[in-house]
Amino acid sequence: MSQLTCPQRCVAEIVVSWNEDSQFEHPGYGSSIATGAISRTWAVTVVNANKVASNSAVLLVFSPPPPTTPVVTAVSSLKAANTAQTLTIAGTGFTPGNGLKVIVGYNSYGYYYPVITATATQIQVQIDPGTVARTWEVEVIDSNVAISNVAALQSQ
Length: 156
Hints:
Layout: E1 11-19, E2 22-27, E3 40-48, E4 57-61, E5 71-75, E6 85-92, E7 101-106, E8 109-113, E9 115-118, E10 122-127, E11 135-141, E12 151-154
Antiparallel strand pairs: 1-2, 1-3, 3-4, 5-6, 6-10, 7-8, 7-11, 9-10, 11-12
């Protein structure tokens, strides 16, 4: 088995460009570039120490999707009973993760409730609504910090 040994740098530079007028060169073995948030096609060429360039390789960079805003479309009912109940929140654009929060409250005062389960379209929390029938407000704060609409439900 033979091993390639380079007494000096084998790669002199890496040339990255997205059009003929916009290019930059990086010396050395590795390279990182800030691609920005615009989708475009990049061409990558490696130039060796003897100034011989490789064929161009294409690197496709896609812009990130816009952040979604969660929307609450429906909330399950609660019974006015002093017992723990599962509240199911239906909607769109939920991003499950460590930062996902649900606020449930009434009269403009809310409390964070721990999420039991979550998908992109449904969240469940455990809540004890007490014995007084009232109008509850539910709001979702997504793990990407986007805030949903406020949905109301009446406990019975």
